[in-house]
Amino acid sequence: MEPVALGCAYFLAASLALASSRFEGGLAFIWGANALLMAYLLTSRTASWPWALIACGMASALSTALWGMGTLAAVPMAGINLLEALIVALICRRFARGGKFAGSMQPLFVFILALCGPANLIAGLAAATVASALTTVSFGASLLQWYTGHVLGALTCTPILMMLMQGELRRWFGQTSRRGKWEALALLLLFALATAFVFYAARYPMLFALLLPMVAMVFRLGNLGAAASVMILAIIGGMATMTGHGPLYMIPGTLGERMQFFQLFLAFSFLLSMPIAAELNSRRRLFQMLQESEARYRAIAENSGDVVLNISVGGVIEYASPAAAEQIGCAPELLVGQDAANLVDPADREQVIATLDRALEQPGEVQTVEFRPFISAQGSDWCEMVARAVVDERGLPTGLVSTIRDMSRHKARQRALQQVAALDSLTGADSRRAFLEKLEEEMLRVRHGARACLLLIDIDHFKAVNDGYGHGAGDRVLAGFVERLRPGLRSVDSIGRLGGEEFAILLSGTDVVRASMICERLREMVTAHPVQIDSGEVIPVTFSAGLVALGGQSEGQAVLEAADKALYNAKHSGRNCLRLAA
């Protein structure tokens, strides 16, 4: 039914224009029928276009045959009308997809360019050719009649019709209070009275006097106010001009020229109000978004366990969330006006200030820093601050939003995980990574004059234990082996498991002679206490060892390789013995 209704509406609009505005016997000076087709094409799916074009094409041909230039012009003029509307619709769909004229300026700007440019230049030349061939009106006059009538009619009517088709009026009625509706009605009546006065009662040309109430309606009613004011102006002003009343009748010229001037006034009035309406809509959406954002921000800030701060560009606290009382031990209102750096331990203030400065210098990025608090209600050891700049419409920072979170539990878990990662889970000795780190630290001390030795140990015939008693027994031997070594080590010494049955002992402050004596004592302790496994059997344990003194010029890998060569010699010397590195 939509194409049929559209075709009937098109026929009525076209017939009215042809019957009332063919002042010189050629083309109509007023033409709003194509605005109806353009509005439909711009607000509907492309799948429905063919039937709409057929319906409007038939309506155009019929109205031209009955009221226009006759049957010879019916089909050509119908095709030209459809071509104009189709060009506008295709360009707008390509460059302003889904755009609403009331929402922003880009769709309206694309529409104006498409309408005034290719659509009516092409269609106008074709229509002027047909009109000049079938009537007494010249080609130039016909082109001017087409261009002004179609461009001005479409500029005025298409955006209004699109608003109606997109449900703007229905939404306004559903969202506006009764008081708002009465206010709108009063404004419309006042504007109608002002328009009637200017066109029927005023003794002087006072068209300019209508711009002020029109702008006021736009401010109060938005884009619908702009549309309603133009419709009132078109009805009252158009009837007055056609019947010989109003300021435009004071202009010398024909009725057709006066109507062209009136359409130009309508178009410029509407184009004046539309940018204002678009800007107001944009500001209303922005204000609504700000209100929603403020509500979310308040809800998060006032119910979060983290402290939320608003900090000025100068580093002064402008807002502190209620969590400050619990986390920092200070009422939020007492923090306002204080320097944010005062919350930080003096040892970490420089790092925190640098982070806040970096957040201001890079507004689009989030900056994070960990610090120790100066005071803390809960005795927090560490806190984490996350900061991001707040910018104005020019992208310049106006302050910072920051959150402060207690990191003490996280740091404690982190230390616990590090401790777990530093120990071998089976034997309790240092892991390979942790031991090698200790080795590097010890070698640094050796470079500064200290003494130390590295003992590399391998349990003798450990593979036979795994093969004969199982891996469970092997694990028990490994754990028992470390248990028997520990009593013979000092607190400054370190033992680590490098892998499998291979261990290493770092003897600090010890030369090779003393280290050799310690190794022999350890070997005796292990030999004297065999390891008892779960089955009750006792497994004797011995080890081979390679010893190397840490040198000031040596690297960690070189020291390990030297100790490994000495261990290799011990294994090939009958095992259960110590060999020194060359």
From TrEMBL:
Record bears the keyword GTP-binding: no
A GO BP annotation: cell adhesion involved in single-species biofilm formation
GO molecular function per UniProt: diguanylate cyclase activity
Catalytic reaction(s) noted: 2 GTP = 3',3'-c-di-GMP + 2 diphosphate
Signal peptide: none
EC number: 2.7.7.65
Domain PAS: from-to ranges: 293-363
Keyword line: Cell membrane, Membrane, Transmembrane, Transmembrane helix
Topology relative to the membrane: Multi-pass membrane protein
CDD domains, per database record: GGDEF, PAS
PROSITE patterns: GGDEF, PAC, PAS
Domain PAC: start-end pairs: 367-419
Regions that span the bilayer: 29-44, 51-69, 75-96, 108-134, 146-164, 184-202, 208-240, 261-278
Protein name: diguanylate cyclase
Organism of derivation: Sphingobium fuliginis (strain ATCC 27551)
